[in-house]
Specification:
The complex is a heterodimer of chains A (127) and B (221). With 127 residues, chain A is of the alpha/beta class. Chain A has helices at 13-25, 36-46, 62-72, 87-95, 108-126, and strands spanning 5-9, 29-33, 50-54, 77-82, 100-103. Chain A has a single domain (5-126), classed as Rossmann fold. Chain A has a five-stranded parallel sheet, sandwiched between helices. The longest helix of chain A has 19 residues, at 108-126. Chain A is globular and about 35 Å long. In chain B, helix 1 packs antiparallel against helix 2 (53-85), helix 1 (3-47) crosses helix 3 and helix 2 (53-85) crosses helix 3. Chain B folds into two domains: 23-85; 92-220, Histidine kinase-like ATPase, C-terminal domain (Heat Shock Protein 90), CATH 3.30.565.10. Chain B is of the alpha+beta class. Chain B has helices at 3-47, 53-85, 96-113, 133-150, 189-198, and strands at 92-94, 117-121, 129-131, 156-164, 167-175, 202-206, 209-215. Classes of the chains: A alpha/beta (127), B alpha+beta (221). Chain A binds chain B through residues 12, 14-15, 18-19, 21-22, 25-26, 56, 58, 83-85, 104-106, 108, and chain B through 22, 26, 29-30, 32-34, 36-38, 40-41, 44-45, 48, 62, 65, 68-69, 113, 115.
C-alpha cells in the first residue's frame, strides 16, 4: 500500500519541519511549503493526497490557496490549520471545500486521524 | 468634548487593548506550537530508538529551536508587561523610544498580516518625557493602524523620533501606495485631537506624514 502523500503549508519554518518529521516517523510521505506560491507549485508537481494548510500563509490568503487547490483537483483534501478566534475563516474554508480544520497547537493523534479520514474520502472519490 | 465622545474614547481605548492582547496571544500560540512540535519530535525519536551519536546533532538543533521560541516568547511577554504597567499612572517619566519600540513589537503581527514592514529610526539620547505613556501609545496606534489599513502590500511604515525645542517629536512616515480606506477609521480626527490636547502636544500632517510634538513635561502646561 502506498504511503499517504501530505503537503504541509505553514510560514513558521520550524513548526512545519518538526511536524513533517513527526509525520514521516509515522510513515507518511511529507513535503513542506512556507508560502502560497511554493504550495501551489507543489500541488501541481507533487500531487499530494492531503494538504494541511495554514490559513494565514504569506503571498495569498489561505482561503484563496484552498480554492486554487480545489480548482486544480477537487479530490485533494484540505485540512485547515488555524488559531482560536478565526471562526469566520474556518466557516469560509469549510464552505470553500476544506475537509476539516485543526487548531494550533496541534494534537498529533487528532491530526493523524483527520489525515486518514481525508485520505479515505479521497480514495472513495477516486473509485 | 461631550460625554458621548468621552465614551467613544473609552471604547476605543478598550478596543486598542483588546487588539494588542489578540495579537500577543496569537503570536505566543505560534511559539508554543513550535515548542510543542519540537518536544513531540524528540519524544517520537526516542520512541523510535533514534538516540545514538548520529542523532545528537538533530537533538541539539531541536533544542536550539525550543530555546529560540522561549526567548521570542519572553521578549513579547516583557513588552506586554511593560505595556500593561504603562496604565498604572497617567503621568510618569518615561522613554518615548522604549514606548514606541514596545508598541511596534506588539503591533508586528498586524503589520505581518498585511505584509507591511514596521521600521524605527529613533534619535539616541532622547530625554525622558513627563506625560501619559498609555495615552501616547494609543494615539500612535490610531495613526499606524489607519496607515496599515490603507497601505498596499509590501509597503513600509517608519516611526522616527527626534528632539525639538523643549519637546520630543514622533513622526509616522508611510512608504508605499496609499489607497482610500474601505471604512472610516473609528479613531476620528476629533478623538485624536482630544487625545493630543490631553497630552499637551500637537499634530501636524504633511504629505501623509504625521508628526506629533510632545512637550517634555506635561505638568508645565
Amino acid at each position: 500500500m502506498s504511503r499517504t502523500k501530505v503537503l504541509l503549508v505553514d510560514d513558521e519554518v520550524e513548526f512545519a519541519s518538526a511536524l513533517a518529521e513527526r509525520l514521516e516517523l509515522r510513515n507518511y510521505e511529507v513535503k513542506t511549503a512556507n508560502n502560497a506560491l511554493e504550495a501551489l507549485g507543489l500541488i501541481h508537481s507533487y500531487l499530494p493526497d492531503v494538504v494541511i494548510l495554514d490559513l494565514k500563509i504569506p503571498g495569498m490568503e489561505g482561503i484563496e490557496a484552498l480554492k486554487a487547490n480545489k480548482k486544480f483537483d477537487s479530490s485533494i483534501e484540505v485540512i485547515m490549520l488555524t488559531g482560536h478566534g478565526d471562526g469566520f475563516s474556518v466557516e469560509e474554508g469549510l464552505r470553500g471545500g476544506a475537509f476539516e480544520y485543526i487548531i494550533k497547537p496541534v494534537e498529533i493523534g487528532e491530526l493523524i486521524s483527520k489525515i486518514n479520514l481525508a485520505k479515505d474520502k479521497r480514495n472513495k472519490g477516486n473509485t | 468634548m461631550g460625554n458621548g465622545n468621552k465614551e467613544d474614547l473609552r471604547f476605543l481605548q478598550l478596543n486598542f487593548i483588546g487588539r494588542i492582547l489578540a495579537g500577543f496571544t496569537h503570536e505566543i500560540k505560534n511559539y508554543i506550537a513550535i515548542i510543542k512540535e519540537s518536544a513531540g519530535l524528540m519524544g517520537d525519536m526516542i520512541k523510535a530508538g533514534k538516540w545514538g551519536k548520529n542523532e545528537a546533532r538533530q537533538y541539539m538543533e531541536v533544542i536550539a529551536s525550543i530555546e529560540e521560541q522561549i526567548e521570542r516568547s519572553l521578549a513579547l511577554f516583557r513588552h506586554l508587561n511593560r505595556f500593561a504597567h504603562k496604565m498604572d499612572t497617567p503621568r510618569v517619566s518615561f522613554s518615548v523610544n522604549e514606548g514606541m519600540e514596545e508598541l511596534f513589537a506588539l503591533m508586528s503581527r498586524f503589520a505581518n498580516q498585511r505584509k507591511i514592514r514596521l521600521e524605527t529610526d529613533f534619535q539616541k539620547d532622547l530625554p525622558p518625557v513627563q506625560s501619559d505613556p498609555a495615552m501616547l501609545q494609543f494615539l500612535i496606534f490610531c495613526f499606524v493602524r489607519e496607515k496599515l489599513d490603507r497601505l498596499d502590500k509590501d509597503s513600509r511604515i517608519s516611526l522616527k523620533t527626534g528632539r525639538s525645542d523643549g519637546a520630543v517629536t514622533i513622526t509616522i512616515i508611510p512608504q508605499g501606495r496609499l489607497v482610500e480606506a474601505e471604512a472610516e477609521s473609528p479613531c476620528s480626527a476629533e478623538i485624536r485631537q482630544h487625545v493630543v490636547m490631553l497630552l499637551g502636544g500637537e499634530i501636524t500632517e504633511k504629505d501623509h506624514e504625521i508628526q506629533i510634538t510632545l512637550p517634555l513635561n506635561m505638568a508645565n502646561l
